[in-house]
From TrEMBL:
Domain Nucleotidyl transferase: 19-286
Pfam families the record matches: Hexapep_GlmU (PF24894), NTP_transferase (PF00483)
EC primary class: transferase
Protein's name in the database: Glucose-1-phosphate adenylyltransferase
Reaction(s) catalysed (UniProt annotation): alpha-D-glucose 1-phosphate + ATP + H(+) = ADP-alpha-D-glucose + diphosphate
SUPFAM superfamilies associated with the record: Nucleotide-diphospho-sugar transferases, Trimeric LpxA-like enzymes
Family, per entry: Belongs to the bacterial/plant glucose-1-phosphate adenylyltransferase family.
This protein's record includes keyword Phosphoprotein: no
Sites where the protein binds alpha-D-glucose 1-phosphate: 110, 175, 190-191, 208
UniProt entry tagged with the keyword Transferase: yes
Species name: Nitrosomonas aestuarii
Source lineage: Bacteria, Pseudomonadati, Pseudomonadota, Betaproteobacteria, Nitrosomonadales
Annotated ranges, domain Glucose-1-phosphate adenylyltransferase/Bifunctional protein GlmU-like C-terminal hexapeptide: 309-412
GO function term, MF aspect, one: glucose-1-phosphate adenylyltransferase activity
Pathway(s) of this molecule: Glycan biosynthesis; glycogen biosynthesis
């Protein structure tokens, strides 16, 4: 009976929550992968976009009033949401709504994350919700927001910050949270050079996930105050949260308590914000037991799915054999006498005879020519890999034409190959 009561309580609060997904950032550390699209629109996992993860978390959690705030090169993101996320029924107050930057309040684009929400206050005031869930659109994770919201109410908090434990040496790129014994936030430091450790765990730090729950009226009040603050950059992490911590009831929520379907003891949360991190997260999906479970029927990741035929593997000769080993191959792919190892292929990839692909991430609509050899590469959408091209075996040679990361991953785009871009979504 208690469990049913808890579920009814969670259902009531999720239906009374508005989710705002901040999806306007470019993500410059992804280099040329974000030349033509915003970071949340970057393809991930063979058939998804990064933004599908927070959107799916919302729907699976029961949060069905969702607004997506866009800005930088948003066309492919807008198309993806229109095609793949129109199944919610507005008659039941369920929707995914797009809020592009429109200079609604002043003659400037979004100046920071808090300013992005502030500029939409006129629209948000008409939404019927008591709680506002602020989410980033550029992280990969599975989280039950209902548990986060329930804890926010239980603590009588005005703001709740979701946090995850990370090794101290990796924490300087994030906002660091300090808490007391009741998990009330006592400090918040944005990207410190020497991150403070967690109580009782000197080798770990509590990192803000950029996920916030606000009481609706309190959020609006604070956004207006921050808008008039002269020295503010109007950002949640840099300005709003540090201001609120010593003055209001701000609590931390452990991601460990709301992470869904962990494959390991550590909750899965990835900022795939560099080419290396992007490559690693995608390649991990090809392992026997990846850290991220995409085969979970109870918490599916929803997306726009193009109608494609199954992947096809042809030729079984000693000289050329169409095969994929320890790999993921999406619909529409044709592996024609090519060998694929430890790689992830998105849809409509054609790998022609005698080509060899290892430890690589190949985005949609790539055509790989005969006798090409690719190793530890990320190939952008719509590339035509020339016959006989070899990449991933000589970093010095590769860097003359392509982008090579510090960890030896090579990014290939149509422009680098001297090919005309028809469209990159």
């Amino acid at each position: 009976m208690q469990q049913k009561a808890d579920l009814r309580f969670q259902d009531k609060i999720t239906r009374n929550t508005l989710a705002l997904i901040l999806a306007g950032g470019r993500g410059t550390r992804l280099k040329q992968l974000t030349d033509w699209r915003a970071k949340p629109a970057v393809p991930f996992g063979g058939k998804f976009r990064i933004i599908d993860f927070p959107l799916s978390n919302c729907v699976n959690s029961g949060v069905r009033q969702i607004s997506v705030l866009t800005q930088y090169k948003a066309q492919s993101l807008i198309q993806h949401i229109q095609r793949g996320w129109s199944f919610l029924d507005g008659r039941f107050k369920e929707y995914v709504e797009l809020l592009p930057a429109q200079q609604q309040i002043k003659e400037s684009w979004y100046q920071g994350t808090a300013d992005a929400v502030f500029q939409n206050l006129g629209i948000l005031r008409h939404q019927h919700a008591d709680y506002v869930l602020i989410l980033g659109g550029d992280h990969v994770y599975k989280m039950d927001y209902a548990k986060l919201l329930a804890e926010h109410i239980e603590n009588k908090a005005e703001v709740t910050l979701a946090c995850v434990e990370v090794p101290r040496e990796e924490a300087s790129a994030f906002g660091i949270i300090g808490v007391d014994d009741d998990w009330r936030v006592v400090s918040f430091t944005e990207k410190p050079a020497n991150p403070p450790s967690m109580p009782g765990h000197p080798d770990k730090a509590l990192v803000s996930m950029g996920i916030y729950v606000f009481n609706r009226a309190f959020l609006f009040e604070q956004l207006i105050r921050d808008h008039h603050a002269e020295n503010s950059s109007h950002d949640f992490g840099k300005d709003l949260i540090p201001y609120l911590v010593p003055r209001h009831r701000v609590f931390a929520h452990r991601f460990l308590d709301s992470c869904v379907n962990m494959a390991a003891d550590v909750p899965y949360w990835r900022d795939v914000g560099t080419v290396d991190a992007y490559w690693e997260a995608n390649i991990d999906l090809t392992t026997i037991t990846p850290d991220l479970n995409l085969y979970d029927e109870d918490w599916p990741i929803w997306t726009y799915q193009e109608q494609l035929p199954p992947a096809k593997f042809v030729f079984d000769d000693e000289e050329r054999r169409g095969q994929a080993l320890d790999s993921m191959v999406s619909g529409g792919c044709i592996i024609s006498g090519s060998t694929i190892r430890r790689s992830l292929l998105f849809s409509n990839v054609k790998a022609r005879s005698f080509s060899n692909i290892e430890d690589s991430v190949i985005l949609p609509n790539v055509d790989i020519g005969r006798h090409a050899h690719l190793k530890r590469v990320v190939v952008e959408k719509n590339c035509k890999i020339p016959e006989g091209l070899k990449v991933g075996f000589d970093a010095t040679e590769d860097s003359r034409q392509f982008h090579v990361t510090d960890k030896g991953v090579t990014l290939i785009t149509p422009e680098m190959l001297g090919q005309r871009i028809h469209s990159v979504g």
